[in-house]
Amino acid sequence: MTIDEMRRELQGRLKKSRFAHSIGVANTAVKLAKKFGVDEQKAYIAGLLHDCAREFENEDLQAEAIKRGIIIGEVEISAPLLLHAYIGAQMVTEIYGVDDKEIIQAIYRHTVGAKNMSALDKIIYFADMIEPNRNYPGVDKLRELADKSNNLDEIILTALSESIIFVVQKNALVHPATIDARNFLLLSKENPKMMYPFLTLNDDTEIVHSEILPDNSVKVYVETPDSKDGFHHMTVYLPDYRIEEIYRYTQQEVEKYLEIIRSTAHLIIRFARGGGFENAPDF
Ligand SMILES: [Fe+2]
Ligand SMILES: [Fe+2]
User: Fold this and answer.
1) What CA–CA distance (Å, rounded) separates 16 from 279?
2) Would you state the pLDDT for residue 226?
3) Residue-number span of the structural domain to which 50 is assigned
4) Ligand nearest 109 Cα, by number?
5) Do 161 and 262 fall into the same domain?
6) Which of 167, 204, 217, 224 is placed for a possible disulfide with 237 were both Cys, Cβ 3.0 to 4.6 Å?
7) CATH number reported for the structural domain that contains residue 64 in this entry
8) 272, 212 in Cβ contact below 8 A?
């Protein structure tokens, strides 16, 4: 489906105000994507479609989740509305033909967040909170923060804290994923992880990696200077090769760099344990 077709399909599916909200999130997400070097088209599509399952009311959400084999946790039993994120993450593929894993994940995580969120996850989560149609006490402070801050983690940390405070004040349940998301950010702030140089390729591409992260993964960051538009980059986590973000690489380039990472992953993990190549013992 083209983006135009997606918009038309969605408009027929959602009530007017929900559709306006979706457009607001898409546009806000693109602005944030521009600012933080995230793929703008993915941000638009994820923002546009994030609430595509909001056509269902509470009882229907539960039935729909059961039908789809989605596990309904304790918190979701009490707050079935949360299920629209997980159902939406399936519907984007079924109805809109979106098979991009980053977009699907951002939609899945948009309501309660998650541990170790990708930049796209964060942008959609936050755009959902501040798009122009939103109106609640404190929204202007978040909008201001988005304008002022150049640190996406700082923005998201505030957003997660605000949403936890809001839920607690309502005397409602806090979803554990929101706590995980916030704890993960605070822990990584307390222990800023160094990035260590690993390889420089003939085309000036740099591959760097982190130490072992709190969840036992290793972040690998690939960056290629481009004379026309700055840097192209991608982030991959070992050991499961989870791609966090890809910015302006072609599919072919992604494959090429993944292959290099695959063939050297054993070394990267070893250096991650030992504080980088330069400090690696017995090498
Ligand atoms: Fe939503
Ligand atoms: Fe939303």
Assistant:
1) 59
2) 86
3) 3-188
4) 1
5) no
6) 217
7) 1.10.3210.10
8) yes
Count of CB atoms within 10 A of residue 90's CB? 19
Exposure pattern of 224-255 as b/e (b: 16+ CB <10 Å)? beeeeeeebbbbbbbeeeeebbbbbbeeebee
Counting DSSP H helices and E strands in the chain, the numbers are: 12, 5
Is pLDDT at 281 greater than 70 in this prediction? no
Same domain? For 249 and 139 the reply is no
> How many domains, the chain?
2
183 C-alpha to ligand 2 centroid (Å): 23
Verify that 107 and 86 share a domain, yes or no.
Answer: yes
Q: How far is the CA of 37 from the centre of ligand 1 (A)?
A: 24
Residues 62, 154, single domain; the answer is yes
pLDDT at 265 over 90: yes
- What pLDDT is stored for residue 160 in this prediction? 97
Say how far apart CA 94 and CA 73 lie, in whole Å: 24
- What is the whole-number distance in angstroms between the Cα of residue 106 and the centre of ligand 1? 11
Give the CA-trace dihedral at 70, 159, 176, 273, to 10 degrees: 100
Ligand 1 centroid distance, CA of 270 (Å): 41
- Which ligand lies nearest the alpha carbon of 22? 2
94, 232: one domain: no
Pair 33, 169 in one domain = yes
Domain boundary among 131, 162, 188: 188
Separation of CA 189 and ligand 1 centre (Å)? 28
SS3 state of residue 244: strand
| Domain boundary residue, one of 188, 208, 232 | 188
What pTM value is reported for the model? 0.75
Tens of pLDDT, residue by residue over 69-90, are: 998 999 999 999 999 999 999 9
